Amino acid sequence: MRIAVLGLGRIGLMHAGNIARHHTLALAGVHDLDRHVAVAAAETLSTQVYAHLEAVFADEDAEALLIATPTDTHADLIERAVECGKAVFCEKPVDLSLRRASACAAAVAGRGVPVQIGFNRRFDPGHRGAREALRAGEIGALHQVLITSRDPGLPPREYLMSAGGLLRDMTIHDFDLARFLLPSEPVEVYAVADALVDPALGKALGEVDSAMLILRTADGCMCHINNSRAAVYGYDQRVELLGDEGMLVSDNRRPHELRRYGARATGVAAPYLHFFIERYHDSFVAELEAFAQCVADSTEPEVGLNDGVAALRLAEAAYLSMRERRAVSVDEVELA
Amino acid sequence: MRIAVLGLGRIGLMHAGNIARHHTLALAGVHDLDRHVAVAAAETLSTQVYAHLEAVFADEDAEALLIATPTDTHADLIERAVECGKAVFCEKPVDLSLRRASACAAAVAGRGVPVQIGFNRRFDPGHRGAREALRAGEIGALHQVLITSRDPGLPPREYLMSAGGLLRDMTIHDFDLARFLLPSEPVEVYAVADALVDPALGKALGEVDSAMLILRTADGCMCHINNSRAAVYGYDQRVELLGDEGMLVSDNRRPHELRRYGARATGVAAPYLHFFIERYHDSFVAELEAFAQCVADSTEPEVGLNDGVAALRLAEAAYLSMRERRAVSVDEVELA
Amino acid sequence: MRIAVLGLGRIGLMHAGNIARHHTLALAGVHDLDRHVAVAAAETLSTQVYAHLEAVFADEDAEALLIATPTDTHADLIERAVECGKAVFCEKPVDLSLRRASACAAAVAGRGVPVQIGFNRRFDPGHRGAREALRAGEIGALHQVLITSRDPGLPPREYLMSAGGLLRDMTIHDFDLARFLLPSEPVEVYAVADALVDPALGKALGEVDSAMLILRTADGCMCHINNSRAAVYGYDQRVELLGDEGMLVSDNRRPHELRRYGARATGVAAPYLHFFIERYHDSFVAELEAFAQCVADSTEPEVGLNDGVAALRLAEAAYLSMRERRAVSVDEVELA
Amino acid sequence: MRIAVLGLGRIGLMHAGNIARHHTLALAGVHDLDRHVAVAAAETLSTQVYAHLEAVFADEDAEALLIATPTDTHADLIERAVECGKAVFCEKPVDLSLRRASACAAAVAGRGVPVQIGFNRRFDPGHRGAREALRAGEIGALHQVLITSRDPGLPPREYLMSAGGLLRDMTIHDFDLARFLLPSEPVEVYAVADALVDPALGKALGEVDSAMLILRTADGCMCHINNSRAAVYGYDQRVELLGDEGMLVSDNRRPHELRRYGARATGVAAPYLHFFIERYHDSFVAELEAFAQCVADSTEPEVGLNDGVAALRLAEAAYLSMRERRAVSVDEVELA
Questions:
Q1: How many other C-beta atoms are found inside a 10 Å radius of the C-beta of residue B99?
Q2: pLDDT of residue D264
Q3: Chain D residues with CB inside 8 Å of B261's CB?
Q4: Is C125 touching B (CB cutoff 8 A)?
Q5: Per the CB < 8 Å rule, is B259 touching C246?
Q6: CA of A8 to nearest chain D CA: how many angstroms apart?
Q7: How far apart, in Å, are the Cα atoms of D294 and each of C252, D79, D82, D288, D290?
Q8: What is the mean pLDDT of chain A?
């Protein structure tokens, strides 16, 4: 399958490289508003540069588009691509506006064109293995989920200014992971958050960098999420499932297992895989493979636009909870 | 130091044994309403049986009392002991009524007689080591605390009927641990709880067996607690501290480190230390030693009646939060 | 059962304390050539001091003797005790002379008096669990054994001068452990050793501090032992068993499981249990309980004089191998 | 750099794929005696098929050759390639005959053409990290090395018939790793080996499947190697270094870190990375990068023909030791 990549920032470049190196996928071409960036990438990856966006939609060789452009262009590009009959893989979030995301989902529903959202953590071998073991009954009925999701350091101020807020930008992955793991939809959200890492920046931007949440399903299943923008010891990504017959833990990974035992200290020598590109490399490849399979089989992606909308709705519920210091029912948050 | 033990249930017997085997502590005698129990224990431990409670208070040889009787007798016994000038080590909780506990604390305040409450987890080498490392600045400023505290199985129905509810009986240890670890007092509590392990029993008793909480201090420090009555994989007691310069984790322990690597499975052979008597053995001994030191030095115990009251107040705030599905300020809960 | 303790050095005091604190064992009394040491110990442990050795043998209250005197007195004391009909628990080694040890074993054979040698590592819960799993067939047929046994630091020069050499003093525990774990007797030994930790001391004393060995059974089962007097990172005691259906590893233990995750380092905070008294505490108690059981049941101890002789014979074979740089058949070493 | 790959068995195909996917290396073409295999590989990897060997040597576009043909062709191909001025990366072993390997090394010495031998384990991030930490003085002076190297299962009978014997085929990697880690050359070898996994096959082929060795340097540094063809729990590759100031351990890796905690068992869910292609993926890429760097810089490869000869000499010494049941000095084994 040939895929065109739109947007060549950090994650767009990563996807383009994964496609180029894959033994069954291929790059149809790349596009970026910064032509220098596009030319450099095309050279490295031995592919063509599209002169403009319309050239992408017109390229009959490109069966699918991978959208890694700025968030505020996602919904428009998805709609345009679906009109052109091109399968879409779009990075999260669909849009920072729940209403716009929801309208986009409505617009492309029933068109028979696969649209997959880049919630890659579902495809992480450890997290996915946990869910498979859960579904296979290995820990009985699920009672509690704990998701620890901490970035290794504050992103640049510019990033924060347009990211849409911690819960829409970072926690949104955890909302999707919670929905992936829980046996039914979360119906209630409670959230606290604060600017503990950089209070001054938090004040300046009206932004938070640390959060704790509790979600609940209608069956009483509980889910705790904790986030921090600055786990100085490394990118910390853990999932824990407690059931009435056992527990499953998907823990962090390291690039090798060298340990040091000295007179004063004993420890591992290798830090965690540093950030999402390394930590979730396997899942980034696996989500592309799953997408290609859906396109080949003309089936619905496992994680589609409605999942993007649902995660965003949880984020909105969480923001409401933060403001009102109370549990918020998810259906208090209107979609349109 | 000679200590008389009142109440010879599971935990009273354990304390009596720890005292008898200790190289600087000694048993002054034991008492239990069930005389057969008392006689059997006294024989095993080579000590005397007190004929009645007054004989305990009258025993000039007994410098201190260890109270492990039913909860509803604690406050009265504490007050009586202090009147007699005897130092007191009392099992938690002080009382199921916050008002009564608070009154007891007021009644004995300023009497110069040490009263220590049995919040033993503060004395666990791992948990205490975490706090010491925190206080020594090893992880910088504290942002998040996670306490996992799960029992290995439901206690008998009779126990549950008089225990006062999950949050007063079990979570109370975690409230104290949170106060021990946090840099300032929690000022806000949010709690959800449910009867997930045994819904029928929960309904019959109006009791819950699973809970998740979030506490906050005035500085924005966040603390998550999760509880379950039934972690079938073993008594699960973990503490995690996230600071802006690192993380500390006090993890579970096993009696030995045998591991099995087979064609189909790889794992540890020894389960966690099964329950509190094994898991917290070191802390049960250490809290007695700290108590004896206070008595010897005529100093205030590290964990006194006011700590018992404060933990109970958090439990009351948590129950209010559960009912009203909102964050509750601790000062909404009146002490008297 | 009442046990008299002879010899109150480090290990004798430890045994005496274990007996005094045990709920079914009791101290009959203690003896040491240094009367001050004996008096101090007796006071701490609330027992009597024997005025002289004959008083021990004459004490009808003492059913058993625990011999922790200098090695060159062991064989005589064992023989005398057996003559008196007193069960014996004797610290290793039986004697530094294989001939004397062998003669002692012959002298007391068939007398119906239990004599147990203090090869305590057999009773370590992890090592024993490994053997039980092996015998239960969990890893199929045994192919390889690896024993890592390293002390945390060089003992005093005085100790080394009378200890009899690394292989007779320290490796002897590993020889016994090898015999405990292997399905049949080792028939061949190869050993290399050197003074790597302190070459000057090694030269002065003609002693080594580091060794590697390979033993073989008649069935081809292989066993590697490595020793060092100076593992600065802690007392390192590991056993690994490879079978055709899996592997078993009995690893080191720590007093608690605090871990630190910092920006520059991640590691455990607690060192290994420091030395044999802490690391093998459980096994020291368990071997006494096993001994008491044998006395009660009038059965042969699991680890008797012949085991002491067999381990010593392996040490002699190892010394011969070292000198001649070749594999030595155990039956090259004559017992008498 | 453009590299031609000769021989497209399991490891040749792996190397060809690694080259094709690498961002700075490229495939010049492939060759295999089985033309169907070559055509299929060329199609997958988008490269050309060489019609015959001479076409490889004549291809001016191919700066370097990667030789992954049967062992008995290695030395001839190396010599021919060097004559043509083409850099060579050759899989181990150079030859099963020490004399032939040695002659090949002599023949190409001083020709200024880089020849690297595929001892990839030196490039494993964990093993290499251990050596770097050692060289940086983190554990002081080295006393002991332990190398555990066990395959997950017996290879096919056909493979065994031509592999040259366990010590030349499998242990040779460990001999090279020992030389890589030890501060000076091993001067003495002792080896025991047996057919424990499949005695019947061993008897039929005169081959062994399990081994233990001890090497020594002139300074007394000791190195233990253990091998098995059948670690059913997974490909087991560990290195341990003991120095007078600490210990370094490079342990096994897993594809993810999912763990299961059940009522009866607790363990990891993911087996070790299964076999050399997965376990040593990073090292296979890193050795190619190091090779390319040498070619670019016209420097000597870190691991050249002389290292191939030295490892083979240790294998010969080990076979002599096995036969004669004694320590063998490496210089007893003549090179020519």
A1: 14
A2: 83
A3: 233-234
A4: yes
A5: no
A6: 18
A7: 44, 19, 15, 10, 6
A8: 96
